[in-house]
Hints:
The protein is an all-alpha fold. The protein has one domain (9-113): Protein of unknown function DUF3227 (Non-ribosomal Peptide Synthetase Peptidyl Carrier Protein, Chain A). It is built from 4 helices and no strands. It has helices at 8-46, 57-68, 71-87, 99-119.
Amino acid sequence: MARQYWPKEATSGLDDLLMNIIDETLKHIFKEVGTNVIYDFLGNHYHLKKEEIVDKPEVFSAGLKYLLGSGASVIEKVILDNLCAELKFRLKDRRDYDLLDYIVELRKCAVLVDSYSVKSGGVNHDNE
Length: 128
């Protein structure tokens, strides 16, 4: 899949949330020590720093698959489920989609929402 770039300002909130969800999910499953082993592995073998994961989800996914084998897809599904729960969002389940595909879809939505907000002058919550 070709790498797609999105306006950083439109996706920064999503990216911060995604990184927090990834970190929390890994810590829940592997605890602190196991999560640090995963981050170290990704850094040493894939030259991927923790803070770069959201910018390079394809590298993160490849590293997880190498390290965890078929278990990586389960971890990615849990990450995605946790992200959707936090966003109160439901994604259509597609057999041919992986974590990267869903991230691309979520970024498209974030860009659309940001674009709408800019064009419409944003949402004013002062009177609520």
